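Recap from last week: sequence in, structure out.
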Amino acid sequence: MSDDPGALGGELRRAIWRASELATTLRNVAGRMTSVVEETRANGSPEEIRRSADELAGVVGQGLDLLLELRGLQGRLEALAAVAPAQGRARRGL
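Predicted structure tokens:
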């Protein structure tokens, strides 16, 4: 992380922007999951259930990847938030 306040603000904005993108993608994944489940409920033949299970496995994997990245961004935002007050005190000579 940089000691430049402008750089800190830029890092914060990028992390928040990425978190927003990931949250949007996660909502889309949840929507796909809902569609697969509803389709399976409507057409619950054994063949359809197997196909749906495979598809759900892929969707769940994608969702987990997104959640892991969001978790990493949470840590990044916490670290940036911890640096921001110290940076402000340093600029004021405290």
